[in-house]
Amino acid sequence: MKITKAGTLFQLTFTPHIFPVNCYLVEEETELTLIDAALPYSGKGIMHAAKMIGKPITKIMITHAHDDHVGALDTLKEAMPNVPVFISSRDSLLFDGDIRLMENEADSPIRGGVPKRLKTRPDSLLQEGERVGSLEIVSSPGHTPGSISLFDIRNRSLIAGDALQTRGGMAVAGMIRPSFPFPAFGTWDKATALESAKKLKNLRPGLLAVGHGKMLEQPEGLINKAIIKAEQKLHQFS
Fold first, then answer.
1. Three-state DSSP class for 60?
2. How confident is the model at residue 237, as a pLDDT?
3. Is residue 94 helix, strand or coil?
4. How many angstroms separate the CA atoms of 77 and 119, rounded?
5. How far from chain centre, in Å, is Cα 104?
6. What is the average per-residue pLDDT within 87-96?
7. How many domains, in total, are found in the chain?
């Protein structure tokens, strides 16, 4: 596990050189919020990182319900049974393996590793615009129908889950980067993902943190280039 700090944000990266999977600890005044739960074996590392920082984890927030973002959730919940788990109301359905689409959603199958043996269930369902601690909930569907991003109102740090990737180069969810194509393979709807990327760019984040790849400061220009590429690709195949 590799730990990288940027202001109030700690990035925990598992298998950093092969298949980097990130989760995050957001530091508040007296506590930590965990964003995502990485891989099944990641629980020990996450708890060790919190101990090193010297503050307790008091909330677990999930950007979307894919295996590489909820992997250690059962382990963490067993170790910290009183710590609530938050996820969007839409992606909470995936916790139960329900991959049916809603009437207003794009007719494309939900892809990626939807959890099949997850015991933990969310304690609280999130909606756009809610605030949990310093984090504002931003609906950013596309990778999954209920994907969310978290925007730290103190310093404009944006934790975007798999709405964007930086591993292999900046890309909008669904756009294949040959050196790291896996987030694209797991994306539900490219057009929806593109609209979410535009929304996230308009937040003008000072720091971008994603599920796969390094954190980037002042990422707006790179996000904009990725959006232009995604628009060209979608137009090409439309």
1. strand
2. 66
3. helix
4. 9
5. 23
6. 96
7. 1
